[in-house]
Specification:
single chain; about 450 residues; two-stranded antiparallel sheet; 2 domains
Length: about 450
Amino acid sequence: MKFLKNLGLVLLLVAVLAAWVMLPWQGALVLAVLLAAWMFLFRSGAQTRSVAAVGISTLTQRLGSSAVIVVGIAGVVGVLVALLAMAEGYAQTLRNSGSLDTAIVMRGASANEVSSSLSREDLLQIEQAPGVAHNAKGEPIVSAETVVAANLPVKGSKTGDEGSAQVRGISEAAFAVRPNVKIIEGRTFQPGLREIVVGKGAVRQFEGLKVGASLKLGNQPWTIVGIFASGDAMESELWADANVVNDTYRRGSGRNSATVKLENAAAIKAFGEALEANPQLKVKASTTLEFFAKQSEKMTQILRIIGITVGAIMAVGAVFGALNTMFAAVASRAREIATLRAIGFRGLPVVVAVMLETTLLALIGGLIGGLIAWLVFNGFEASTMAAGSVGKLSFNLAVSPGLLWEGIKWALAIGFVGGLFPAVRAASVPVTTALREL
């Protein structure tokens, strides 16, 4: 019988946790309202309030053991939210790099710019496709671009380590298809010269990137003439004239990709279909928003898996800490609980009351952990290799409201697991047995 009871508790636990994982904050709010209504409108709910009030009022007397739960859960939530903020910040940076009214065109089988190649003839036909926006001079707004890698000294490295930076050869239209890119120091490069502008993110990552400095790319000296900001993945790159980049790296007249300004967001359908229907082209077009969102999927998934794995390992320790604390608390109140049951209190109010006590401690721990993660890590600068890129991507960790809610859900789940078994034990110990316990 005891085995079946424990099996039932485990199955209940699994079912509740599975449902809890999928629950939005609105659903949790509804559950809280329903619980409050039950506690104030029904007799068993009133009994729960009485038992819970006594238990919560004694928390200050059990400050040390209660702190074990709070600190343990705060640690879990803080680490979990910080790690997930990496994934959120990485994905957000790449999503900000695209829009619905710009398209990127690459070789049909290419998954990224690095593996793509477009000939001069391809680029001419892309410019003539329907749906391409034109400037005041009637010229198609298309930026044919080359992507290469350059090894630069990493900032702050005491051993002279080098990191990979992405150099993008662009045309004059690059600033038209990316209007968010602004020169914040110095000026833009002059076409035909070995001049380069660097992104604000690249300046944070690599040593010596400042206006007026010289650096060597492709065994040729280049002069940094400006620094730009864009608020997206482009900030991690170095930009120069595409023709000069191609000459330096012996790339001929071809390009890796073409970024196109569309007449409007709806033009992508006609534009993409025209390119695919052209027998002389073997290319594929997608909006830049779709392209960068897809580029972020794999790395975001990896970062989330790491965060959830580390959080789960820490959560196991927090659960055992909660179990030990709540079993001890229930044991110290055995006579009190038995007396309440002897005078007519049912088992359900006792179970819910103990669960509420644990949930309160878990909620406090979750809020503390989430607050610490937000204060310390929100906006924290980090960098990693970007998927499909040849250089590092600089991004800021983003502790969003969604991540904070996810951390709170983990905290409450730990509290539920840590309080369920002690609560059931408190309600199931025979009254006569409990009254004899010290």
